[in-house]
């Protein structure tokens, strides 16, 4: 009789542990989802800012057609990739980032534009949006790392395996070498 | 990993409990001396503490911000500041952007308030806005957001309420004992006969405690506060991935000679920098609310990475092995994080010091409901809110401008 109770006790304890781990995994996963939504908000904000920027810049930058077109094109490509996975999307967004960086770098050659209040305000918004993108990415990747660790480590990996938790995908903005490229190219 | 910090505040909790015990001890002795009944004293101590806690919990933020004469701003008032706060909110994973307040004071300083992250606010002086560039401001805001995220604000509020209660009780008790309260205890000791010796011992202990308790409570309070400062620095480095920003901001703040007008001893630990520090004081002693600046800067500068593990390693180099500052549970989840490059591709044309000063003073005029009229000669005229005349004459060129 005692043996039966011991077995029942063990089963109950295991069940409780299972539930606790499962709930914690759900918590991590929600955090990852939430962090991804944050990135999404900022990327969309950038899509919205670019037409305004183009409108402001147009009158001043007559000789920068290519640079401007590159930004518009990169923006449209990025917007199309919006529904893709983290890996592909990161690539498109990386392109957009570097196109924008090139555009903002040539602004140096247009003192009139640099004095335009409207442009300055837009530039602040863009700079900050870039920062927010990288901060939300940082937070997202940290969350993914934490979540993936939980999925792969014992004993939570057993619970994750049984209930079908999948590892999260990191969001890397590629084109890192272009972001490091120094300021102005006098072309 | 960051919310783990909250769960491991053991040492801070021990200190708070120590303060609570001190409070109880005062109540106990008060009861014995004034009512011959320990329970009565305990009840009084408890009621005073409870009332003050409720007040601090529900009104603390507005009292603090009101004392500092802080004014709330929105995105359009100062887009850069607002954006930086939002950036740090995202980096820390907070749910809501804290309210942002400006204090019109040339002394550079900042603090955070709010009993929980949903009701939090950060306050920044105009001096800080003028002196710091974007990266530095980001470091400071990261530090303040870390205080909110790590729930330091609540912890410090609890500790400061206890400190306040102890000070008040001890103050009144010592006055009563010196001027009049003694009669009762003397008569009771004479009627008690043999209990006289014990009475005197209790009395002496009580007097000693009334003198010592506020000092002890203050020291405990400072100990809690110092530890939280290191934690907030480490978190700021982690959020920004750029400890140099905070390091150079701290240096600039420390180099400033002006003292904050609106701070007092109770609110001092709230600020990023102790507003009452004296120059060249060896500050790492028991009586300082903040760790010495040079040390904070040195740790930040030699981190090499941005993770908690990096901060902990350097901290131990400075303070000796085994004396950590980051809770083990937060360290366990720490992973190598590299620093951000000094400036990414497109460096924005950042406003320089002069522009920042102008920007900030414009903001303060605007917050004071002054109207700005630009005269044709380029002079900016500030019209006070109660101005009744239909036109104003430019003192520079003599033209009349309609209001």
What does this structure look like?
The complex is a heterodimer of chains A (187) and B (403). Chain A is mainly α and 187 residues long. Chain A has a single domain (2-180), classed as Up-down Bundle (de novo design (two linked rop proteins)). Helices cover 79% and strands 0% of the residues of chain A. Chain A has helices at residues 2-58, 65-80, 86-106, 111-115, 117-152, 156-163, 176-180. In chain A, helix 1 (2-58) runs antiparallel to helix 5 and helix 2 (65-80) packs antiparallel against helix 3 (86-106). In chain A, 33% of the residues are buried. Residues 176-187 of chain A have low confidence and may be disordered. Chain B is α+β, with helices and mostly antiparallel strands and 403 residues long. Chain B folds into 2 domains: 4-276 and 296-332, no CATH class; 369-402, no CATH class. Helices cover 58% and strands 8% of the residues of chain B. Chain B contains 14 helices and 8 strands. Chain B has helices at 4-7, 10-35, 38-67, 79-92, 126-131, 134-149, 152-178, 182-192, 196-240, 243-255, 293-301, 308-319, 328-332, 353-367, and strands at residues 70-73, 99-103, 110-113, 121-125, 371-374, 380-383, 391-393, 400-402. Chain B is globular, with a radius of gyration of 26 Å. The interface between A and B is medium-sized, with 38 and 23 residues.
